Amino acid sequence: MITLKGKNIYLRALEPEDLEFIYAIENDESVWEISNTQAPYSKFLIKQYLEQAHKDIYEVKQLRLVVSSYNEEPLGLIDLFDFDFKNSRAGLGILIKEESNRKKGYGSEALQLLIKYSFSHLGLHQLYCNISEDNTTSIKLFKAQGFKEIGIKKDWNHINGLYKNEYLFQLINN
């Protein structure tokens, strides 16, 4: 049985009611570095995105899910992106919105659920993620899920006048 339900959280599809939540995340400049966002998103564009969110991962090459508590509070977003059916791989990213909800195991549980889903249901062979060298929390989180550092991209991102390295992590389904 395929389930996206964990002990403390579950992963669910995007809903029209998520407009304000996604708008707040996409327009929070403090997380733009993580998502490589350069400019704010309008509610109109996010509403259009939500109207298309039902499309199949094989068509749009992305799957975005809401990390939700069992009291229906949206906690964050988790994404599969750059879905490559031919090579059986996808990128993986996660964000828990409020700092007060971080370091409580929600991100770890969400990653475990999506990794299991990716390998068992989607038949992926590998997942990868890109993490800035100074994002020690994410590095620790992904390493704890079995991701291995396989490379470093030197001076990869230009942030606030500085070039930062970015690590490439990979998890192969053996």
TrEMBL record:
Keywords on record: Acyltransferase, Transferase
Residue runs in coiled coils: none
Signal sequence interval, chain numbering: none
Enzyme class: transferase
Gene3D superfamilies in UniProt: 3.40.630.30
InterPro entries assigned: Acyl_CoA_acyltransferase, GNAT_dom
EC number: 2.3.-.-
Pfam family, any one: Acetyltransf_3
GO molecular function, one term: acyltransferase activity
All residue ranges annotated as the N-acetyltransferase domain in the record: 9-169
The protein's name in its UniProt record: GNAT family N-acetyltransferase
